[in-house]
Backbone:
């Protein structure tokens, strides 16, 4: 399945130009219990609907950005640059292996 994903820097492009890096997660604060840490590392919400995700424009400007996408229809509602102080949403330092295939 193919769809257009608007890069905040380049505009709408085919999704094949991008790498999906998973839904956003919130890092546990303080001293998390082993259960909280395991949940953070291994479990995802896997939303059937609109979810907030990390994307990387690997065959374009190499920008990391956030997108709100409906996982049922692949409709992209919004893309934006991450804010530097966004709690729980640190930008990955290098391309991550996606949790699930993008297409
Ligand atoms: Zn781009």
Residues:
């Amino acid at each position: 399945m193919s769809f257009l994903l608007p890069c905040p820097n380049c505009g709408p492009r085919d999704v094949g130009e991008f790498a999906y890096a998973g839904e956003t997660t919130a890092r546990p604060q303080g001293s998390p219990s082993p259960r909280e840490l395991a949940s953070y590392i291994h479990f995802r919400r896997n939303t059937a609907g609109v979810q907030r995700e990390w994307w990387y424009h690997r065959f374009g400007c190499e920008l990391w950005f956030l997108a709100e996408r409906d996982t049922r229809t692949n409709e992209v509602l919004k893309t934006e640059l991450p804010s530097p102080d966004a709690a729980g949403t640190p930008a990955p330092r290098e391309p991550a292996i996606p949790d699930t295939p993008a297409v």
Notes: The beta strands are 4-7, 11-14, 19-23, 50-56, 64-70, 75-80.
